[in-house]
Specification:
The structure is a homodimer. Chain A is an alpha+beta fold and about 450 residues long. Chain A contains 17 helices and 18 strands.
């Protein structure tokens, strides 16, 4: 038998019909929602149904030195779960149960494959809620959320994913299991491996269970503001002023002129005529009305033309423009959705930098921002399936601008393969060396998601 | 020259009069607020005034293979900063400046030596606030807070220390510098070394600067409830019911009968006659009154006899009993302050377990709990300076009970030397092995705080 045949044989004898080699499924595992695709399909997919299946897969992988790419719903935006020749895809999508909901301690125990939206539907039946669900909640899994440190719209007020993950059950590269963290609010026993696992993009182990903090649903009316501004920089200044005044919106979303134009084209609306940037603000909780009034005053004093409502249906109408962004982008062509994050006060400067990049590289970059936390999603639009070089050059300039403003390469999507060449620009060589060292402690054979996050040490 | 003389010589030529060998100061570095002391005084103390001093110290330590114990104010409760024969104490207490306060982005940059209370005084002048300051705020440093992952009274509502630390500047064992994390709310570039550093108890590097989240001060009236219950278990049940009803107190503190008796002895009061357990609840923010009314109803329905006030002075009076706890303990004798944390709903069971340990081992364990987050501080009272064996046996039984209830050995004090023998009971051998591996990546020579957290691999 060849090496690959031997691996398949070992997988099948350990896992039976959980091992899939259907060409369509193997082909799908080459890509994710970034649009990026690997060079060739992987060897096989294991549809793990249990922790034991995950352990069996890792034991075969260790014994045969076969790379493993853990994968959920494939909705990543940085290529962290792309699989290629000779690799085993370990799918945790079928491990999709909520194992426990503890309303007294406000924790839940979940398997990694459950969709964020489905989890929140189940919690919602009991008046509960998991805060850090990303915008992709309808199609993305909790496991992917944890693997990337995904964020979403509500992080400024309700925390990032790391803050909500209390404990993890992790299968290591050789099939052993560790249980990190705790169920209690506090716990500082030893090094914080739970936090280290969040955002580790499949490099350190396979998350098979998670203990997460849940919340009681926020009661009371929600207030929604929609405002138009003459330009993105002034909208960004208003957003920053709202935050620094101590108002804490649940949602604060900024769209630039190109984004508005794209949404107008999709919906047949004429919002672009009302202004060149759109800011949507939503407040919740007991101070929702007071906070919204304060935000409205700030927005109007800084040149915004705004509407405020506390009617739920009207609020949904005001947010419709933001919700139409993704479908609108899909109509423009292929997009590289970027994900830089800067300190809130640097948002106006970042919008100026984006305009500069557009001009210098002759590209179009509709941009939306989670303005409450300084996280921008510039959308690089291009023709065809492969990101052209000039788009990467423009992205390079954009990353440099974000780092120069005290920001980061990625606020919530991760590094994957798409951004690994910039990793050292942000972290520095010494920190990258430490991170590689940690990776080697967890994965001495280098079989967990090789080639992701870090550039290969040897070209390959 | 002997080895020690050569190290001192190298330190003095690199650091001049920052090197201190005053016997009284060396002796003080043998202990901390746990009451525990090392076998003998360290070699020298370096009073670092700058990052360069820290780097110079670590370069000498690396060149001479000399152990380094980083130390702030010495207020630790687990012996993590005790120094002994042949060790260099690296004091960051003189690096005590606030380098930046950014009111727009609500972040501050601080040096490690600033006291938590002093930092909050400076922030308070601008209407700002750093939430995770521990009960020891008046005497403990931010550096120590970060090193231990210290908590305090407000964590359930306002987050733990890890949630508030966005980025760190760290001097590595060999004197190199890394900058982890970011200034933005979000950021997921690479592995989360910022979170890994929080609570790492001096094992991985020396924190020389921190970027922390700050908040606008919470406006409006504060409501305070003081309630007496017939026993600690019923007070704990009420506390748990308040949380699970979705009320989010800023402070919720529980004292048992032995604690009340000690405070009565200190203050000459007769609170013990009013009930056998005391629960103090404080709500803040726009819903303070509503939440307090809801909490009061729950407390009374569960057997509590309660007072509620929104007058600040009266509120302080109601909390005075809790604030008197530490001085009251000091009058009882020497105390080993323990720090287990359990899921909130397990608080009644944990109080029952403590009563059982008292009976089995013939010891007295006055206990207070941060009831909002399930963190208990059982105080083992004994005679003399050294924790007697039977107290450790009782503590062992208490730790086992906490772990059996899904809890942790330490909620906010750390492992240090006092709890290292139980580390593996909580984490398991495989996880400890990984943690040791991470330690070795950061500190291949094993010179950073050796013998802390992990038991020595070779007896010594």
């Amino acid at each position: 038998m060849t090496g690959s045949a031997a691996v398949l044989d070992a997988l099948r004898s350990a896992l039976g019909d959980a091992v899939v080699t259907d060409p369509a499924r193997l082909d799908a595992a080459r890509g994710d929602k970034s649009g990026h695709r690997s060079a060739a399909p992987p060897l096989a997919i294991v549809d793990a149904r249990s922790i034991e299946d995950v352990q069996a897969t890792m034991r075969v992988a260790t014994a045969t030195r076969t790379p493993v790419v853990t994968r959920g719903a494939g909705t990543g935006l940085a290529g962290a779960a792309l699989a290629t020749t000779g690799e085993i895809v370990l799918s945790t999508l079928a491990m999709d149960r909520v194992l426990e909901i503890d309303e007294d301690d406000l924790v839940a125990v979940v398997q990694p494959g459950i969709l964020n939206g489905r989890f929140n539907d189940i919690l919602g039946e009991r008046g509960l809620w998991f805060a850090p669900d990303p915008a992709s909640r309808a199609i993305s899994t909790i496991g992917g959320n944890i693997a990337t440190g995904a964020g979403g719209l509500l992080c400024a007020k309700y925390g990032v994913t790391r803050d909500a993950v209390l404990g993890l059950t992790v299968v290591l590269a050789d099939g052993r299991i560790i249980r990190t963290g705790h169920r209690s609010v506090k716990g500082v026993t030893g090094l914080d491996l739970t936090a280290l696992m969040v955002g580790s993009e499949g490099l350190l182990g396979v998350v098979v269970e998670a203990v997460v903090r849940i919340r009681r649903r926020v009661e009371g009316a929600v207030a929604t503001i929609a405002a138009f501004f003459p330009d993105a920089a002034s909208a960004a200044r208003a957003a920053s002023a709202v935050s620094s005044a101590g108002v804490q919106p649940a949602v604060m979303e900024l769209m630039d002129a190109r984004s508005l134009a794209a949404v107008d084209a999709l919906l047949g609306t004429t919002m672009g005529a009302a202004g060149a940037a759109h800011l949507a603000v939503q407040t919740d909780g007991p101070a929702a009305s007071t906070e919204a009034a304060e935000a409205l005053a700030i927005i109007e004093s800084l040149g915004g033309s705004a509407e405020l409502t506390t009617e739920p249906e009207e609020g949904e109408r005001l947010l419709a423009v933001r919700r139409a962004m993704h479908p609108a982008m899909e109509r423009l062509g292929t997009t590289l959705i970027e994900d830089v994050s800067v300190p809130r006060s640097a948002l106006p400067a970042m919008f100026a930098a984006i305009a500069d990049v557009e001009e210098r590289f002759g590209v179009t970059i509709p941009t939306v921002a989670h303005a409450g936390d300084g996280n921008l999603h510039p959308n690089f639009v291009f023709e065809g399936d492969v990101v052209p070089d000039h788009i990467w050059e423009a992205a390079d300039a954009l990353f440099s601008a974000a780092l120069a403003l005290g920001g980061t390469l990625t606020g919530e999507h991760g590094i994957g393969v798409l951004k690994r060449r910039w990793l050292e620009d942000e972290l520095g060589a010494d920190q990258v060396e430490l991170q590689r060292g940690i990776k080697a402690v967890f994965d001495p054979l280098g079989i967990l998601n090789p080639g992701k996050v870090f550039t290969p040490l040897v070209a390959g």
